[in-house]
């Protein structure tokens, strides 16, 4: 082992089935995970603070740790969801091959994109909140402008299903992971993969 090699800091145990997603809370004090056990868990980095378990996949009010409401509209499993930077909208994608944008105030679907030919594994909002990205089993990445409802970009960047995508906080980079054993980065809005 080299001195600069990463080491395991801590393991989190509590899910009862495969963990399918994970992300950092913006406060960098917590980690959030989702699992096939039907639960979302919030893990605190300080070992003395307990983890929170949210059973079922609903919109949750974190300060009260209570169920808030359900967004219904997909015709099959929902694989991914994300809130907009201002928390007024949400985007979701799933096995019905649709990407849906939701107004969290009215609790209604305000946009639906069905351009994918396979399941949508992952969705994300651009940091400026004006577009969403999605990717999935059709090996493609798509970006939509939610103000104009237009498909901005379409990439066939991978030779296997895309498993996750995320924007850099600056909005200048988009990272994707795939079952083709690669991680790819796109640079700028007009980048080519």
Describe the structure.
Keywords: Repeat, WD repeat. WD repeats lie at residues 12-46, 71-112, 113-154, 155-184. This is WD_REPEATS_REGION domain-containing protein. The chain is mainly beta and 193 residues long. It has 2 domains: 15-70, no CATH class; 71-193, Methylamine Dehydrogenase, Chain H (7 Propeller). It contains no helices and 17 strands. A 4-stranded antiparallel sheet has the order 1-2-3-4, with no helix packed on it. The chain starts with 18 loop residues before the first strand and ends in a 6-residue tail after the last strand.
Topology:
Layout: E1 19-24, E2 30-35, E3 39-44, E4 52-55, E5 59-61, E6 66-69, E7 78-83, E8 89-94, E9 99-103, E10 108-113, E11 120-125, E12 131-136, E13 141-145, E14 150-155, E15 162-167, E16 173-178, E17 183-187
Pfam families: WD40
Protein name: WD_REPEATS_REGION domain-containing protein
InterPro entries: WD40/YVTN_repeat-like_dom_sf, WD40_PAC1, WD40_repeat_CS, WD40_repeat_dom_sf, WD40_rpt, WDR55/POC1
> Which overall shape is indicated by the principal axes computed on the Cα atoms?
globular
What is the CATH class of the largest domain?
Mainly Beta
Question: What is the CATH superfamily classification of the largest domain?
Answer: YVTN repeat-like/Quinoprotein amine dehydrogenase
Total number of distinct structural domains: 2
Indicate the structural class. Answer: mainly beta
Q: Could you say what the CATH topology of the largest domain is called? A: Methylamine Dehydrogenase, Chain H
What is the string of SSEs from the N terminus onward? EEEEEEEEEEEEEEEEE
Which strand order does the major sheet show? 1-2-3-4
Count the DSSP helices.
0
Please describe the biggest sheet, giving its number of strands, its sense, and whether it closes into a barrel.
Answer: 4 strands, antiparallel
Low-confidence stretches: 189-193
CATH architecture of the largest domain: 7 Propeller
**What portion of residues belong to β-strands?**
over 45%
Gyration radius from CA atoms, angstroms: 17 Å
Number of strands: 17
The overall pLDDT, averaged over residues, is 81
What is the CA–CA distance across the termini?
Answer: 34 Å
Helix content: under 10%
């Amino acid at each position: 082992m080299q001195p600069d090699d990463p080491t395991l800091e801590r393991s989190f145990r509590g899910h009862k089935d495969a963990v399918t997603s994970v992300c950092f809370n913006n406060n960098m004090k917590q980690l959030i995970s989702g699992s096939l056990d039907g639960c979302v868990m919030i893990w605190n980095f300080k070992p003395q603070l307990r983890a929170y378990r949210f059973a079922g996949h609903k919109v949750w009010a974190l300060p009260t740790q209570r169920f808030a409401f359900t967004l219904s509209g997909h015709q099959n499993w929902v694989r991914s969801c994300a809130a907009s930077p201002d928390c007024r909208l949400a985007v979701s994608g799933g096995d019905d091959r649709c990407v849906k944008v939701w107004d969290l105030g009215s609790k209604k679907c305000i946009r639906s994109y069905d351009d994918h030919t396979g399941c949508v594994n992952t969705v994300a909002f651009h940091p400026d909140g004006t577009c969403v990205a999605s990717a999935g089993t059709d090996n493609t990445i798509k970006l939509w402008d939610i103000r104009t409802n237009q498909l901005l970009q379409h990439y066939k960047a991978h030779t296997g299903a895309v498993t996750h995508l995320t924007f850099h906080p600056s909005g200048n980079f988009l990272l994707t992971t795939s079952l083709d054993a690669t991680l790819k980065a796109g640079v700028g809005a007009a980048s080519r993969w």
